[in-house]
Amino acid sequence: xxxxxxxxxxxxxxxxxxxxxxxxxxxxxxxxxxxxxxxxxxxxxxxxxxxxxxxxxxxxxxxxxxxxxxxxxxxxxxxxxxxxxxxxxxxxxxxxxxxxxxxxxxxxxxxxxxxxxxxxxxxxxxxxxxxxxxxxxxxxxxxxxxxxxxxxxxxxxxxxxxxxxxxxxxxxxxxxxxxxxxxxxxxxxxxxxxxxxxxxxxxxxxxxxxxxxxxxxxxxxxxxxxxxxxxxxxxxxxxxxxxxxxxxxxxxxxxxxxxxxxxxxxxxxxxxxxxxxxxxxxxxxxxxxxxxxxxxxxxxxxxxxxxxxxxxxxxxxxxxxxxxxxxxxxxxxxxxxxxxxxxxxxxxxxxxxxxxxxxxxxxxxxxxxxxxxxxxxxxxxxxxxxxxxxxxxxxxxxxxxxxxxxxxxxxxxxxxxxxxxxxxxxxxxxxxxxxxxxxxxxxxxxxxxxxxxxxxxxxxxxxxxxxxxxxxxxxxxxxxxxxxxxxxxxxxxxxxxxxxxxxxxxxxxxxxxxxxxxxxxxxxxxxxxxxxxxxxxxxxxxxxxxxxxxxxxxxxxxxxxxxxxxxxxxxx
Length: 572
Ligand SMILES: [Zn+2]
Known about the structure:
28% of the residues lie in helices and 19% in strands. It is α/β, with parallel strands linked by helices.
């Protein structure tokens, strides 16, 4: 599932607290220790949907070797290769590009073109040493010849800075004062400043010397973009962090006492140009043909997302992080990062002590995404394996789709629904599984065996909602459906936060199945050892049975609600 808000998570509180926890001891508390191993030897999978098969598959798919499956990376290539091998082995029909199981997305990795230092007068400045350029996209302006102006001080807003009109066409240098603790700060709000000074040639933040090594490394990583998303962007200023010597060369002297709006009489020569190369980003798409000669031309789509958010350069102790989040951030990345109170620290230490009895400290930097969305991805494989081996095939065809780049902004589902490989009108419903392997009472309020959040199931088709509930009653174990996240205007906005919406915007009825958020959401602790494989197996079986029921209806699911504008903003 995608983050609800784009924030550069500070992690500062967390890092400090995790460091202080390392090696501490306190009174023991009883906390359930993880019962599942860190590694699991794969077993051959069977025709049925079983907890054991799901476990085998998820320990492969969310293994550290997959490097967090971020779109554009080798880990993404490797994890989608596993899915492709499996659907090929099962004998499903390919439904990607030119007879393959892959639909490639026009995703590009952008890196700074080499050999282009910036000069001011006779001084030459080198990228990554003297300045750190940020990629503001293919529409970012070139900086050559732009006159330099002092923009003022960034104090978390634009109140002590020059106006957008003064900045137009200029190379704007902005100072960042020290923080309240007297320590130098480097952060400035790139999206806000880019938006505010949209007509500037460049925005240079004079804070590179204050930037820590980890942030430098993270900000130097290439950006990955979907071409379609870039095309909508208007021309933008270049953006860079510069060292103090470079700032002083630009401004012709010290920033101390300088008045905002002062022109330095100098100009920059050189270029900040980023080259784009195609990066791996692929939907995996396969079809089980329907058994009815007429109805096989219609599809029941079942989806999950194959990507996650990669890895970072800032390893933390796994159990310290988990103990901290259990108390301070029970919703993981959906909850704000903040310091723990004294009382909370005592609880965190207690939890950590009990975890220490199971594992020694271990550093972790890979976002394995076992639940998000390893759970949906392996469930989809199990559904495929079960239907391939069923004696009677569904009447309509089943379309299995593993979307790429969900975490980047629903890229794969947006691209597929805009460029469908089967006629869009032939898709009668889309059943989306994202994060379906948890739902323990410790994870989510009201959780427990059979707990499942259902979202969107009546937003286009009342009949689909009724069908899901009817099928659930025929399952061998009972479900506890939680509808609260489907409420209009719900602050979590789940209806807009996963791939199903890209189908719904075209009037295709959807159901979003999820066991909900938890402390490991978008954390390096989202791992296979914390998944409830019985729960995952029950949800996968339900989704399969809903798909089969919809595929065998003697009529197409009735759409009785208003369709949204396919190119408008999602509204829950
Ligand atoms: Zn996610």
